[in-house]
Each structure stands twice: as C-alpha cells, then as structure tokens.
Amino acid sequence: MKTYPIALELTVWMDLGLNQYEVTIDEVSKISIKRTDDVLRTRELSGNEVSTLIAAIESLRVPVSEEPKEAGAKPSASYELIVESAHFSLEFNWEDMDLKGVSAKAFASVAALTAVVESLDLAH
Fold first, then answer.
1. Positions of E strands within the chain
2. Residue 105: left if φ>0, alpha if ψ -120 to 50, beta else—which one?
3. CA-based Rg of the chain, rounded to a whole angstrom?
4. Closest Cα to residue 6, out of 21, 32, 26, 22?
5. CA distances from 118 to 4, 72, 78 (A)
6. Does the pLDDT value for residue 82 go beyond 60?
7. Distance CA 53, CA 8 (A)
8. What is the pTM for the complete model shown?
9. Residue 33's closest CA among 22, 44, 49, 45?
10. Could you give the residue ranges of the DSSP H alpha helices within 1-124?
11. Is 114 helix (H, G, I), strand (E, B) or coil?
12. Residue 31 and residue 22 in contact, taking contact as beta carbons nearer than 8 Å
C-alpha cells in the first residue's frame, strides 16, 4: 500500500536540554535526531520500523483529560508531538505528570507513539 508522505516531529524538554526527533515516512523514510539543536545523526528507517510507526500513528486518539488536582507539582519533562500528512495535521502537548493518575489512560496512544519514536534512537 502506498501512503501519502507523513512528517512527524517529537520534541522532549527536560532539565538537561531538549531531544528532538524528526521522522519522514516516504519512499525513503528517515529519522533525524537532535540534542539541543545539534544534529547527532540521521539514518534511514527499515520497513519494519516504518510499519511500527504507521501502526502507532493509526492508533492515535485525542486525549481528553481532567486538569491535575495537585497544585505546585512540577513536571520533569514536557512533550510536543506533531504528525502531518496530506489529509491531516495533529498536534499534542503534554507533560510527564499527565501520564500518571486519572489522565494516564487518555494519553496512552500519544505515549505509545512517543515510545516508538524514542526507540528508533539506537544510541538512546
């Protein structure tokens, strides 16, 4: 099956800086990995990696959650995930605290796609 090209960008802000993953799914699929704006490496993705990414993208659900009740708790990581193609554009923003407690289930699909993208960083 030939799909439209898909662009995916995941940015993770942490205390020690940021990690950024740029993925292109097309005839030649690639990932580019940056740490605080320095490109560390770019490589082509295997067919299995592309299939895993597409399955995770297809399973994305819009997270509808409640505001956290804990006041004053600070997140240790913040995330932004953007997935775009010819027929859709999705943007998700969340913090590691959203993955715990009552909201955890709402963010399961975006957390799963994040885990797939981060796993592509073989030196991570």
1. 6-14, 17-25, 30-35, 38-44, 77-84, 89-95
2. alpha
3. 15
4. 26
5. 23, 29, 14
6. yes
7. 10
8. 0.85
9. 22
10. 47-58, 108-119
11. helix
12. yes
